[in-house]
Amino acid sequence: MSNIILTLLIAFIGGIVFDFLHIPVPWLLGPMISGFLATNLLQWPLMWPNSVRNTGMITVGYTIGVSMTATALHEMGRQIPYMLIMTILLLLFCSGIAYLVSKVSDSDYQTALLASIPGGLSQVLILAEETKGINLGVVTITQVIRLMMIIITTPLLVMLPLFREPADGLIANEAVLPPEVVGSWGGLYPNIFLFAVISIVFAYLSIKIKLPTAYLIGPAIGTALLQATGIVGPILPPALINLAQLLIGTYVGLLLKPNDMPHKFKTFSIAIASGLLLVVGGVGLGALLTLLQPISKATGLLSLAPGGMDQMGIIAHAIHADLYIVSGYQLFRTFFIFFAVPPFVKWLFKRMEQRREKGYQER
After folding, report:
1. What residues does each domain of the chain span?
2. Buried b vs exposed e over 149-179: b needs ≥16 C-beta within 10 Å?
3. Residue 43: which region, alpha, beta or left (left: phi > 0; alpha: psi -120 to 50)?
């Protein structure tokens, strides 16, 4: 318990400092960076239970669900063809990165491919564990570094003048919360109790049926369904949103432990390089999406950024981007990677193994 309290204090200080410096999404980035530094530089015994992180995930899931009005869901339905095209293009880009990584490192292509897939961290690691011949350490390190780089660079990118153009098209939709709409503590009651129960129940059900990122997707679905009955979900106060960011950011910051890396410098360098390429790919695909759809550049970037639905949802909410568009694209990619990628990857690796064995036999 003392370690958890110390971790909370370090995370809070990080959030305060980043907020004072006016760094984007301070309560996500501050705790993440401060936790990472305290663990790896100061060697402090920090600890952050999964249950605490999951509480933050449920809160973010609720926020996403509240944004999914009937109009928003209709618009998401229209976006499905573009979601599929963009997801496939992103995965092809990641496959190319994996090929380059396998050529300049000691990793085989299978390991490099799983390390480059922009899916949920837990899902990719499970797939890596179940696949024969995969270097789990390399996959874990590269995925964590990628995740941290996306979380750090994306908020900084969307704050650039290039991505802060006047909103048009879909961003004027009623599903988007304008800057002046701020939740209050008094406005939470009494509906928040019902929505809290629904969010927890749907998170539990999502775990039972093994949905990806269950603590995020479950509450989002439950909240959206309850709103469809006419019951309006209250907007959360900024303090609760900041707390959710802190709970998630602290967890991510403690994931990366450079001291456990094999060939630290080379592994770290390759992971950073592949992470930067993924950022560039996300920016390019986001720009392409803005040419195909009437959305802002910030929304396009957040929709295609190879991060997680929770982090991109937090950033979209913070800058008042099209939260339902961002969540829709991130959710679609999560499901696509979870259901379509594993069987394809296993089939691909099996074919590669058969060709390799055939080559040995011919020799």
Report:
1. 51-362
2. bbbbbbbebbbeeebeeebeebbeeebbbee
3. left
Percentage with pLDDT > 90 across the chain? 12
Angle at 86 between CA 341 and CA 227, to 5 degrees: 90
Give the span between the Cα atoms of 126 and 144, in whole angstroms.
Answer: 14
What is the Cα gyration radius of the chain?
20
3-state secondary structure of 94: helix
Six token digits for residue 242: 């900041």
250-273 confidence digits (pLDDT tens): 887 887 676 655 566 777 788 888
Measured N-to-C along each axis, helices 109-116 and 264-292 cross at an angle, to the nearest 10 degrees, of 50
Q: Residue 33's Cα: distance from chain center in Å? A: 17
pLDDT, tens only, 297-310: 888 888 888 876 66
CB neighbour list of residue 42: distance below 8 Å, 6 or more residues apart: none
Query: Is 282 in contact with 174 (CB distance < 8 Å)?
Result: no
Residue 272: count other Cβ atoms within 10 Å of its Cβ.
15
| Summary count for the chain: helices (H), strands (E) | 16, 0
Q: What angle do CA 357, 360, 362 make, to 5 degrees?
A: 110
Are 115 and 106 a contacting pair, CB within 8 Å? no
1.20.5, 1.20.1530, 3.30.450, 1.10.3470: which CATH number matches 51-362?
Answer: 1.20.1530
> What gap in Å lies between CA 252 and CA 60, rounded to an integer?
15
Token pair of 287 as six digits: 């720009």
Report the distance separating Cα 75 and Cα 197, nearest Å: 28
What does the block give as tokens for 336?
């696509």
